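anyone seen this seq b4? input:
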Amino acid sequence: MDAQVATFGAFFANANVNVNAVTPAVFSAHLDAMAAPEFSRIRLHVSPHSVGDLAALSHVNWQSITALGQLVITLYFSPRDTDDEVVSLVRCIMNIIASLQKLLPIESIAIYNPLPPALLRSRATHDVSGLITELKRVWYSVDVRLHKRMDASTLGRVILAKNTQGFTTHVAEDEKPRVREFFRALADFHDVI
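predicted toks r here
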């Protein structure tokens, strides 16, 4: 596999292309132009406010990727996000994972900021049970897909962590039960959470 790396939200770079602020549409066109796209790493930086990008990401031909070392996804939430925006973001991530070839071997999938604790805390006076229920449903679907990949030996490991102002820290002890509530299957396989 060559050393191609694709990053959304920051830079896109590989042996042939170096473009700032790559959009999913540019990446999609690049994928379509390649005979057998291979990547050592794909980094996605996404937030609910990039709705157009989320729609475009869902339509990228992920199935065409023939080799992928790492998929790194960082989610950015804001107290301004609506419940629908938060759930749409997680659903987009689920669709991307589901769209990858079933037998494509992947070293690791890392998901940073899988839960929006600041958003939930900011709404402490509001009822967030509907949002939590919907997040559980969608994240459980992601969890099942990752679990199936691991069972088929096409996924080496999953990393769930929080990214605070550019510094990555694994989920704190007091948050582990909450993360396990969302990622039940993964809790049996990984000590990273």
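The radius of gyration is 16 Å. The chain has seven helices and eight strands. kinda curious what u guys think
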